[in-house]
Amino acid sequence: MRVSRGPVACAALMLLSTAAALRSEPIRLSRSGAPKLRASAGAAHANATFCSKEEAFAWAKKDHRRLLHVVYRVGDIDRTIKFYTECLGMKLLRKRDIPEEKYTNAFLGYGREDAHFVVELTYNYGVDKYDIGAGFGHFGIATDDVAKTVEIIRAKGGKVTREYGTVKGGKTVTAFIEDPDGYKFEILDRPGTREPLCQVMLRVGDLDRAISFYEKAYGMELLRKQDNPRNKYTVALMGYGPEDRNAVVELTYKYGVAKYDKGNAYGQIAIGTDNVYKTAEVVKLSGGQVVREPGPLPGIGTKITSVLDPDGWKTGIC
């Protein structure tokens, strides 16, 4: 079992990772001329060295990783907390205000942060609206009763964008709703699930490239891939375990669309790792970009890094 990171330390990562991208250091050759993949100078003490790409990718598969939380911005944090707790059944895990930095954030979910995937809401003083963009898709909430959940949301003034019913060509019962900021949630019929906050859907311009990156850089498994030629899209579910028991990332490719506007609302997903230095190097070798070089968090000591996938989606790693 992996050692969990402190929630406060990993939350701080999400705030610092918005800093400007730092230049990544290239792969070097050893004096003998044989290829040797090395971490940046500041990370050398962490033994972040691989002798080959194959070794690096194999390490990523063995690393103890877990989806920690997803970060996004809202225009009225108290309104959103009320909606999530009363309509979606989440619990407010903690909330903090940082007046000197002019922001407030809150963590909500269905269980402890060290054992469950949770949301981190961020409110920036004076900003009441954000552009969600076309790239972000939706979050997934698994529930024992889709119809009942939808009726609760409707009764409390929530917006139901697609009534509950079976998915075309399948047996799964789902519905779609929107929160007060316009973020979409898919409500899924999955009684008894241990991870109700179960999905983050992001659109990508090249699905095979994205799958390869998430497998190599993040050490995820391709859990399921499904093509829907009638509606001209393909989806791939990536994660660290079966989708009925773990949160997953759903990558969606729409035929012919190579790039999306990401807006400024959605932030990033956070992933836990045993070694941020090695993870940063694997990301580089997989075609991603390190935008915050790995290193200790000032004043806390927790080691963090922030990276971008080939489509520009950010992930914080700690």
Automatic annotation (TrEMBL):
Annotated signal peptide: 1-21
GO molecular function term, any single one: metal ion binding
GO BP term, pick one: methylglyoxal catabolic process to D-lactate via S-lactoyl-glutathione
Pfam families xref list: Glyoxalase
Cofactor: binding details: Binds 1 zinc ion per subunit. In the homodimer, two zinc ions are bound between subunits.
Keywords, in A-Z order: Lyase, Metal-binding, Signal, Zinc
Pathway listed: Secondary metabolite metabolism; methylglyoxal degradation; (R)-lactate from methylglyoxal: step 1/2
Enzyme active site: 186
Major enzyme class: lyase
Cofactor(s) needed for function: Zn(2+)
PROSITE patterns per the UniProt record, alphabetical: GLYOXALASE_I_1 (PS00934), VOC (PS51819)
Residues reported in the UniProt entry to bind Zn(2+): 120, 138, 186
Annotated EC: 4.4.1.5
The keyword Lyase is annotated on this UniProt entry: yes
Record-level GO cellular component terms: cytoplasm
Domain of life: Eukaryota
Family annotation (SUPFAM superfamilies): Glyoxalase/Bleomycin resistance protein/Dihydroxybiphenyl dioxygenase
Keyword Isomerase on entry: no
Domain VOC: 66-190, 196-318
Catalytic activities: (R)-S-lactoylglutathione = methylglyoxal + glutathione
PANTHER family: LACTOYLGLUTATHIONE LYASE
Similarity comment: Belongs to the glyoxalase I family.
Protein name: lactoylglutathione lyase
Origin organism lineage: Eukaryota, Viridiplantae, Streptophyta, Embryophyta, Tracheophyta
